[in-house]
Design brief:
The chain is α+β, with helices and mostly antiparallel strands and about 500 residues long. It folds into two domains: about 140 residues, no CATH class; about 350 residues, Cytochrome P450 (Cytochrome p450), CATH 1.10.630. Helices cover about 50% and strands about 10% of the residues. Strand 10 and strand 11 form a beta hairpin. Helix 7 runs parallel beside helix 20, helix 10 runs antiparallel to helix 11 and helix 15 packs across helix 16. The protein starts with a helix and ends with a strand.
Length: about 500
């Protein structure tokens, strides 16, 4: 009997130790944000959080206010939901709040990539090659690749005047933008010829088809909840990408972007093994191309569902072409769409910004490196614990807040334009001007370095679509699809179903 009692005591002690290890009995200390551990030991609220992040965070905000701490799969996350306090978070040094610590753990899980300790994400080099003169070169490459993919199967104007091509708008947009972006960044077959252009199309199509499979597994992969069959498939896909994007194959390509070249060279100089460099190439591909295609879909869809917006953007496209002496007609050269031309499109810029406001939803996360205090805009100060994570979800905190953006669920193509037609940057909450009024790219020192190239990709695709094609929804009355709530937190959202559309080369002018 005593032996059984001793065994039971040992089991209880072991359970208590595990519970303490996983924070099951964590108590809120004086000065800390409201604590909500959730219904399950260790898991906490993670099931509700994964099911619908936006709904869960809105529920927690109603319950606890603008700052609260919740348990999610063994980690305690403190969410700041007041956009007026975002500036304080962004100003904190990396010695207190660090993005790399969290990001390094994530990329190891998802891409099999182990970052280097020093300069692991190379923001300085990214900024150098994704802005300024580097952006001019990449914009030119993107234009050429877009036209190669968009126009090769259409035929001439004479034999296609009455022929409409049909496709799913999401599939078409994601396909074209992903493949053109991939070719612009990772290079083309050489030398340039009809055969090499065809090989570019074939290779990029194969890569896109496999990438879509991986992309659909991505949320489960991040949360580590893949069932056995899907886990095997994810591993197969990763190995396929490591091979297709390998440094060895990169040496056979031409026109590789300076951004990709420098990223690879930097890792080689730090003696990173080549197989790990191959894995980094997959990270670069996903980071650069997983969001722009879906965003292109939403932008085109909103334009087709809002005739006034479509009319305004079309007129702007035609005006820019006219001012640069270009025409889309029989026998005319292909459109030469430069970065300078893309700087003359304030209406399209506003439509892009509005699309991103409605359909991008990243979770901005930092690791709390040491115990610290955080002062909110209302003057209250809260203590944060070392080892926790601090997060912001701008989609609900900023982008869908009716106090900041009236009628926030509606698409208003001119929301980000002043009455004079310039870019609007003044938005307010509770009478106070906001620094962060739209955050599709994040903010602060970790703001996406590729945002200018990604924005150009979006604009180039839509500009060329409107310049070259008549396009319409197959069912004009079809509703805009709901978003797939399983993808909250990963950037651009995706629809739960595709929308059929048709397009054809514009008739002779």
């Amino acid at each position: 009997m005593q032996r059984q009692d001793s065994k039971s005591q040992i089991q209880r002690a072991e359970y208590l130790s595990l519970a303490l290890m996983f924070g099951a009995f964590r108590q809120r200390r004086s000065g800390e944000p409201p604590l909500d551990r959730g219904p399950l030991p260790w898991l906490g609220h993670v099931l509700d959080f994964r099911r619908d992040t936006a709904t869960f965070l809105e529920k927690m905000k109603r319950k606890h206010g603008d700052i609260f701490t919740v348990l999610l799969g063994g980690y305690y996350y403190t969410f700041v939901m007041d956009p007026l306090s975002f500036g304080t978070v962004m100003k904190e040094p990396r010695t207190k709040l660090d993005f790399n610590t969290f990001a390094g753990q994530l990329v190891k899980i998802v891409f099999g990539y182990q970052p280097m300790i020093k300069n692991q994400f190379s923001l300085e080099n990214s900024n150098k090659h994704l802005m300024g003169d580097g952006l001019v070169v990449m914009t030119q490459a993107m234009m050429s690749n877009l036209q190669n993919l968009m126009l090769h199967s259409i035929g001439t104007r004479n034999n296609s005047q009455k022929i409409w091509k049909e496709d799913g708008l999401f599939n078409y947009s994601y396909n074209i933008v992903f493949r053109a972006g991939y070719l612009s960044l990772f290079g083309n077959e050489t030398p340039t010829s009809t055969a090499s252009l065809e090989k570019d199309r074939e290779e990029s199509q194969e890569l896109f088809c496999e990438f879509r499979k991986y992309d659909q597994l991505f949320p489960k992969l991040v949360y580590r909840v893949l069932p056995p069959g899907e886990k095997i498939e994810a591993e197969r896909l990763k190995r396929l990408f490591w091979n297709m994007l390998s440094v060895r194959k990169m040496r056979t390509k031409g026109n590789i972007s300076s951004w990709v070249q420098v990223q690879q060279q930097e890792r080689a100089e730090q003696d990173m093994e080549e197989f790990m460099q191959d894995r980094f190439m997959l990270l670069l591909l996903w980071a650069s191309q997983s969001n722009t295609g879906p965003s292109s879909f939403w932008l085109l869809l909103y334009l087709m569902k809002h005739p006034d917006a479509m009319r305004a953007v079309r007129q702007e496209v035609e005006k820019v072409l006219k001012e640069t002496g270009q025409e889309v007609k029989d026998g005319a050269p292909l459109v030469d769409l430069t970065r300078d031309m893309l700087l003359q499109t304030p209406i399209l810029d506003s439509a892009v910004e509005e699309t991103l406001r409605l359909t991008t939803a990243p979770i901005l996360t930092r690791a709390v490196i040491k115990d610290m205090s955080l002062k909110m805009a209302d003057g209250n100060e809260y203590c944060l614990r070392e080892g926790d994570r601090l997060a912001m979800f701008p989609h609900t905190a900023v982008q869908k807040d009716p106090n900041i953006h009236p009628d926030p669920l509606s698409f208003k193509y001119d929301r980000f334009l002043t009455a004079e037609g310039d870019k609007k940057t003044e938005f307010y909450k509770d009478g106070k001007r906001l620094k962060y009024y739209n955050m599709p790219w994040g903010a602060g020192s970790t703001m996406c370095p590729g945002r200018f190239f990604a924005t150009n990709e979006l604009k180039q695709f839509v500009f060329l679509m409107l310049a070259y094609f008549d396009l319409e929804l197959k069912n004009p009355d079809e509703k805009i699809p709901e978003i797939d709530v399983r993808r909250w937190g990963f950037g651009s959202m995706q629809p739960i179903n595709d929308v059929q559309f048709r397009y054809r080369l514009k008739l002779n002018n």
